[in-house]
Amino acid sequence: MLVRIRECGVCGTDRDIVAGKYGRAPDGRTDLILGHENLGVVERTGESVSEFHPGDLVVATVRRGCGICRFCLSARSDFCSSGRFTERGIGGADGYFADEYVERPDYVVVVPPELSAVAVLLEPLSVVEKALEEGRLVLSRREPTPGYPPAGPPKALVAGTGAIGLLAVACLRIRGWDVTAVDRHDATPAAALVARLGGSHLNVTAGWEGVPLGAFDLVLEATGSADIDVRLLPTLGPNGVLVLTGIPPADGGTVPVPLGSLLRDLVLKNQAVVGSVNANRTYFEQGVQDLLAFRRSYGDAIDHLVAERRPVEEFSRLLLDRPSGAPKSALVFSA
Question: What are the structural domains of the chain?
Answer without folding.
Answer: 2-124+278-332 (3.90.180.10), 127-275 (3.40.50.720)
